[in-house]
Design brief:
By secondary structure, the chain is mainly beta. The chain has a domain at 143-464. It contains 3 helices and 34 strands. The strands form 3 sheets. The protein has a 21-stranded mixed sheet that branches.
């Protein structure tokens, strides 16, 4: 009798080996095809969310996923990038997503994830606490303070209520870069980028240490008041417009869709958020630092080198600072308003209690209670402003008259030029005599130039006098 089992066994082993080679080399999946290189470039079989998620499952950190073919698609759920993978997902400027669900980025600690080249047409809303169930904002980011910087760039929102939602989800928000995007607001009262900080809005509440009761960057040598402070969310080189439609033009000033909307927030900051907002083009949009009574306020802002284009609209304001500390400088109003005189507002929403109030403008570390520590006649961490001008002549009005709790030369310090040193009490080791020399962080951000590394500070200069 002829024995066929060894022959069959050899064929099974051979077939298994071929199958293993095909799968491990990334040559092909039903929904996703890789090029077999290292790192791999994967191409989706279609532009649906199932195919994108299949590529995410197949890919390794450092790989790129090209979403195709070109066209318009609605996703029933988000494409979710897990924290143990760092991927570039590229719509190649040819894919339009019409659903609220888009991408959920779970930020990891070892490498950078990037979302680029997509158009989003849904209004968007609030992201759930679980990023994988995202159906609110087209891009939801969960980035803890020890996360590696992510990048969201060269995307377009044609009718945004909320385009990007960022949260540390119980910890201070981590680093990220949002650059070279077009944001067209769906209409009035919209908030296009939500920088949620810890996402703990109800006072000290669940995360008091992460909010205000600790150094801005616990366990880290980086300092937000110095040029080498990459642990903020950087929002740079974007264009913000007041009405829905297509933004056109190859350079500043870009042409916005026709709109009389004069009230929308380009960037909203909440709950201990720390942001650097720089080199953007704002068409009648404003920057908001939340400090609403009963809610956890913004911790730190750096706002500089932005251009404001009212385009004949009666814009509400250029910035509405209601909490925390930071700097605002070298911002320019480029053309005129139809009426009124928009300003930079620094104010307090609460109406009772001893100075200085919890979270109010000029508050620093441990500034989450009413009557917290101050420095004699100064609040513990004044907000500094200088050289905010109108191109046709004069300076932007600095308005602190809305609230008696926020006063010039106490909570807010305004000068023609940058002070040589600044006094901030923001870390446990700081005192009222601690002075810092401020220099903006490297521009463009290193992630723009393809360098994902973030160097520690080399010019930190603190002195106690």
């Amino acid at each position: 009798m002829t024995r066929v089992y060894p022959l069959i066994l050899r064929k099974v082993v051979l077939l298994s080996a071929v199958l293993f080679f095909v799968l491990s080399s990334g040559i092909g999946y039903a929904q996703c095809v890789g090029n077999g290189q290292s790192p791999q470039t994967w191409t989706t079989a279609s532009n649906g969310v199932a195919e994108v998620n299949a590529c995410i499952a197949a890919a390794a950190s450092g790989d790129t996923i090209l979403v195709q073919p070109a066209g318009t698609v609605s996703w029933g759920s988000a494409a979710s990038i897990p924290s143990n993978k760092c991927l570039t997902i590229d719509g190649q400027n040819n894919v339009t997503i019409t659903s609220g669900a888009g991408f959920a980025i779970n930020v990891g600690t070892a490498c950078s994830t990037r979302i680029t080249g997509f158009t989003f047409t849904a209004n968007g809303g609030l992201c759930d606490y679980d990023p994988d169930t995202a159906g609110g904002a087209p891009i939801c980011v969960w980035g803890p303070v020890n996360g590696y910087p992510y990048r969201i760039d060269h995307n377009t929102w044609t009718s945004a209520a909320t385009g990007i939602w960022i949260s540390g989800h119980g910890a201070m928000n981590g680093p990220g870069l949002i650059d070279h995007n077009f944001f067209a607001s769906a209409g009035s009262n919209n908030e296009l980028i939500h920088q949620m900080g810890t996402d703990d809005m109800g006072g000290p509440g669940t995360y008091p240490v992460a909010d205000w009761n600790s150094d801005l960057y616990p366990g880290n040598t980086f300092d937000p008041r110095n040029s080498f402070s990459p642990l903020m969310v950087f929002i740079e080189d974007n264009v913000f417009c007041p009405g829905p439609g297509t933004i056109t033009g190859a350079s500043e000033p870009h042409t916005c869709p026709s709109s009389s909307n004069s009230y929308y927030s380009a960037v909203q900051n909440f709950a201990g958020a720390r942001s650097a907002i720089r080199h953007n083009e704002f068409h009648c949009g404003f920057i908001d630092a939340h400090g609403t009574a009963g809610y956890t306020g913004t911790r730190w802002l750096e706002i500089y080198n932005n251009d404001y284009w009212p385009d004949g609209n009666n814009c509400y304001t250029y910035a509405d600072i209601r909490a925390g500390s930071g700097v605002m400088f070298n911002n320019v109003v480029k053309n005129s308003n139809s009426a009124g005189s928009p300003d930079i507002r620094l104010r307090e929403d609460d109406t009772s209690g001893p100075w200085s109030l919890a979270y109010q403008v000029g508050s620093g570390i441990n500034g989450y209670t009413d009557g917290h520590a101050s420095c004699g006649t100064l609040n513990q961490a004044p907000f500094y402003l200088w050289n905010n001008t109108i191109a046709s002549g004069g300076n932007i009005t600095i308005n602190t008259s809305i609230s008696n709790y926020v006063q010039l030369n106490r909570d807010v310090l305004v000068s023609t030029n940058q002070p040589s040193t600044m006094t901030w009490d923001e870390k446990a080791a700081d005192t009222c005599s601690t002075n810092y020399t401020y220099t903006p962080y490297t521009y463009p951000h290193p992630l723009q130039t393809g360098d994902p590394s973030v160097a520690p500070p080399t010019n930190l200069n603190a002195s106690v006098q």
